[in-house]
Automatic annotation (TrEMBL):
<feature type="domain" description="HTH cro/C1-type">
    <location>
        <begin position="49"/>
        <end position="101"/>
    </location>
</feature>
<protein>
    <submittedName>
        <fullName>Helix-turn-helix domain-containing protein</fullName>
    </submittedName>
</protein>
<dbReference type="InterPro" id="IPR001387">
    <property type="entry name" value="Cro/C1-type_HTH"/>
</dbReference>
<dbReference type="Pfam" id="PF01381">
    <property type="entry name" value="HTH_3"/>
</dbReference>
<dbReference type="InterPro" id="IPR010982">
    <property type="entry name" value="Lambda_DNA-bd_dom_sf"/>
</dbReference>
<dbReference type="GO" id="GO:0003677">
    <property type="term" value="F:DNA binding"/>
</dbReference>
Length: 173
């Protein structure tokens, strides 16, 4: 075994002793508390998904595998470029607190779309509206209205356009 030494300020320094000192100093540091979770915002579904994923110690790949989608789609959710379908939200609910993830906005409406449709039907009946009249009041076409009642889901762009009307008529689930 070779002994390490170097010349510092015209003195020979035994590096094994320096290494031992540094190693002991590192051992003396008991813990470093790095808390990344508190750095995340919680304004959107993507923010909450990212925070929850880290709290659960999951990787993007693990979440993608859980949902049978690609890593890039999960990353898109976290960056608020994409929004999940009801099927993906149902899959996420097996590992995540779905009430927290979908606490407001578009994902809450998507996750609770059946409840939204029930409220919409009740509102139509209560006010004696035809579906065409109701669609006009909300600000969508009657064909889009039919699409919803036949199993289709609201798009993010439509949601953004009619949000105020949904709130005005208290139709959020």
């Amino acid at each position: 075994m070779y002994k390490s030494a170097t010349l510092v300020d015209n003195d020979i320094v035994d590096l094994t002793k320096v290494d031992a000192t540094i190693t002991q100093e590192l051992k003396d540091i008991h813990s470093v508390n790095i808390n990344l979770v508190h750095e995340f915002k919680e304004y959107t579904f993507g923010d909450r998904l990212k925070k929850s994923k880290i709290e659960l110690g999951l990787s993007v790949s693990e979440v993608a595998k859980l949902c049978n989608i690609t890593n890039s789609v999960i990353s898109g959710y976290e960056c608020n470029r994409y929004y999940p379908t009801k099927e993906v939200l149902n899959l996420l609910s097996s590992k995540f607190d779905i009430e927290y993830l979908c606490m407001d906005g578009y994902t809450k409406l998507v996750y609770n779309f059946d409840i939204f449709l029930d409220r919409l039907k009740l509102w139509i009946t209560k006010n004696n509206y035809t579906r065409e009249e109701a669609a006009k009041k909300i600000g969508v076409s009657s064909s889009l209205f039919r699409y919803w009642f036949n199993g289709g889901i609201i798009s993010i762009s439509t949601y953004s356009q009619i949000y105020i009307n949904l709130d005005k008529y208290d139709l959020f689930a």
